[in-house]
Amino acid sequence: MPEWSIPPNVKALYSTRPGGVSQAPFDSFNLAEHVGDDLARVLRNRAILNQDSLLSQALPSAPCWLQQTHSTTVVTLETEQNREADAAITRQVDRVAVVMTADCLPILLCNQSGTEVAAVHAGWRGLLNGIVQATIAKMQSPANELMAWIGPAISQSKFEVGDEVRQSFVDQLIDNRTSVDNRFVNNRPGHWLCDLPALADDLLKHLGIADVTQSNLCSYSNADDFFSYRRQAITGRMVCLIWIPSKT
Questions:
Q1: Do the Cβ atoms of 117 and 88 come closer than 8 Å?
Q2: Domains and CATH numbers, the chain
Q3: Taking the chain (248 residues) in consecutive chunks of 10 residues, what is each chunk's mean pLDDT?
Q4: Distances (CA, A) of 74 to 28, 64, 156
Q5: Does the reported pTM lie above 0.90?
């Protein structure tokens, strides 16, 4: 479970790689249907997730799975049927918001009173294009009443990008150039090591969320616990989940 000082009436969870039934290269607790894994095994893994032993109890309901497309689309689960989105908000008890990742950033949000939660999927494109801003704008709570957790994602030492990616961030965040420059380290001509979790941390704080917790877990470096698309393109996906339980 995330090490995060959330309100007692909010629950959050992230999955790891072991404990499922998928075979290589999806071994073993792959939870994504779209990566080429055997569908029956994925559904069995999702059933295991619903009965997750880390909580010593089943999830209150099946997660509300999204069709993630690196977009800036945000849905409110109890009022919108669209599931082609990269962030989900809920204020309804026992409704589980979920995002899948394998190097991209999973960001969980909740308000301080524990009455509103959100899950965000943010790769570098989503972060650059505004998925975090779109999620915060759609939440009812003001940013200064929100808290955030950044889950397992690729770390700076493993995430190489080209000049064009760095320049895109510089152009967008020109008023915060010093911070942007600190988040990119030149490692060879035309290529940079990008600190995606730190860029997200900077953005969340710039938007008014002072309470940001980093997991400091690298999906690429820890092959035993996490899937990584950069490490192995054909692979599974982990999940991060958040919900408001009817019983605490």
A1: no
A2: 11-157+211-243 (3.60.140.10)
A3: 88 95 97 98 95 70 96 96 96 97 98 97 96 97 97 97 94 69 91 96 94 97 97 97 88
A4: 30, 13, 27
A5: yes
